[in-house]
User: Fold these one by one.
Assistant:
Number 1:
Amino acid sequence: MPLPVITARGLTKRYGSFTAVDGIDFDIAPGESFGFLGPNGAGKSTTMRMIAATSTRSDGELSVLGLDTNRHGPEIRAQLGIVPQGDLLDEELRVIDNLYVYGRYFGLPRAYVKARAEELLDFAQLREKRTARVDGLSGGMKRRLTIARGLINNPKVMLLDEPTTGLDPQARHVLWDRLFRLKEEGVTLVVTTHFMDEAEQLCDRLVVIDKGRIVAEGSPQGLIREYSTREVLEVRFGSARNEAAAGRLEGIGQRQELLPDRVLIYADNGEHALQEVVERGLEPVTSLVRRSSLEDVFLRLTGRSLVE
Ligand SMILES: Nc1ncnc2c1ncn2[C@@H]1O[C@H](COP(=O)(O)OP(=O)(O)OP(=O)(O)O)[C@@H](O)[C@H]1O
């Protein structure tokens, strides 16, 4: 196994008496696409800020590219690409100038920045918007520009905090496609998200994080195999009848979850489970069989949903 690019042991962040990140361990390998999946407030952004060396840890160890984050902040940041949760672009400047300004901020040579900015315009599919002001761009375009800006120093490791939050489905797919390209080029991606589909799309490996602690680790498919069944049957009986109906489903499938608006039945064969439901004389208003997802893994591990 090649040396990890990021290693954390007992990584902890306290704000006063509140512990936001509670002694987590992880290793991220070069070229890997690694995710932190968890709900709002789980401690994902705090972890990212410590990796980016913009926040000091309270305890434990953290090294990025072989350097201690508490002692080598500037050297680490010079080698990382950082895409924060908000875009933080210069809204009144033109697209191309946002790239120039950021490159100069890094102290990169002018000629290098000029050439790199042109490459990145193409990468971000913003060639036609080259001289447009940022405040007129769509959300998806701004996000792509933020990613392009983060790539100005040609980093080997890219940190992306909630990369597609707030974007519509089409813009998310365009963005994922750009991130796949970076991955193909060998860039290590470190992604936080509370979207299970994003984690399934982007991550080779991820940790599920809740209340500052890692509750599971693995590949998306591996986690689903370990913590869920192949399929899930979702049945709705109407809000007044869900609970009563759920009480009569015992023994169907391996496990059941009662949610406010539906009952989830975990079974390897969802259609068989549905037959059993019907054979018991229960008539769902709607029924749906789907594959298990990371949302099911999270529900199983924490008893809660990823997106509240
Ligand atoms: N500067 C701070 N001072 C005090 N508490 C903080 C500070 N920053 C974060 N927290 C708290 O730490 C916890 C973890 O926050 P964090 O932003 O890391 O979560 P998150 O998983 O990234 O969620 P989100 O997606 O909402 O950012 C939250 O309860 C938050 O209120």
Number 2:
Amino acid sequence: MKKIKILVINPGSTSTKVAVFENRVSLIEKSINHSSQELSKFASLNEQYDFRKMIILQWLNESNIDVNQLDYIISRGGLIQPVTSGIYQINKKMIEDLKSSTLKHASNLGALIAHDIALQIGQKAYIADPVVVDEMEDIARISGHPNYERKSIFHALNHKAIARRHAEMMDTEYNKLRLIVAHLGGGISIGAHKYGRVIDVNQALDGEGPFSPERSGSLPVGDIIRDAFSNKYTQNDMLSNVVGNGGMKAYLGTNDGKEVANRITEGDNHALEIIKAMAYQVSKLIGEMATVLKGKVDAILLTGGMARDEVITNEIIARTNFIAPVHMYPGEDEMLALAENIFLMHNGKLGVKEYI
Ligand SMILES: Nc1ncnc2c1ncn2[C@@H]1O[C@H](COP(=O)(O)OP(=O)(O)O)[C@@H](O)[C@H]1O
Ligand SMILES: CCCC(=O)OP(=O)(O)O
């Protein structure tokens, strides 16, 4: 049977990851990091569109991959309406929703770029397990005021991929496990997975949770409201303190975890204090999710780029391993998970869902 060639696109807040797969095998991959300084040149997310598309096309060109030989294009999906887990063909409605989304995240650009390249070569484009996969229980949606519902916005693709990988390692199935998955990337999300469903998770974009390399996470809400009406700040100033220029970036001037790790090795005590505070906040939310699972937790899984950093992971392990064994899955399985979605669909083992 002819092998299929798949272009996989994954724009994140601190990187653009690209890969070309032949069936389930990665032929070539690249992760292009974006410093906060580089991204600050763009006044809005939409302005990053040409830049992110160009680096993908340039990389394909440098890698001698002819776009016309691609059979499928798939991207990590962005902030569309809440959906169930699965693979979706990119359609007109999805494009419209992405273009008009009030919430902004780099993953919104992925589907737009994938759609564009697919149109150019006469193929179809897809997304799978976008950041709005919603499996929350009703009780978890209640925030504290009826005007504000808690929302499921998180690294759904990697949460599910790592949880499935862990189940395979343990010689069992994802839908038989009770897991807490903590993705430590540009954003940080911590979810309670109960028998294959993420029944609670922090809104990891601009909602709540631990601070991250570029996000503030939960902030004292009264102080925020007073600042917002003080005439000292624009709406964009306030929003950028929450996403883009919050968290580690605000405290240490960088969104780059590797740079901070080097500073700590060189004896920077302030950097150490901030990183320990981030690990402390992650641990607290893991504790919260343990109560969501009523204390019956099979394992805690740490994943994402920052899970490569032992200062962070050791701190989290020390604070949470009384709950359940902590397993490390540094980096992400997103590229493979996306390619696998296409492979299974191509072979008729996975149905495509329609976005409506
Ligand atoms: N070895 C490492 N040590 C510390 N931080 C790291 C390491 N590798 C990656 N990171 C950090 O992880 C974060 C990015 O994680 P990632 O999961 O790739 O997120 P995103 O998809 O948001 O770009 C960045 O802050 C990056 O600097
Ligand atoms: C919007 C939730 C997903 C997220 O934060 O992804 P990154 O860490 O890649 O920015």
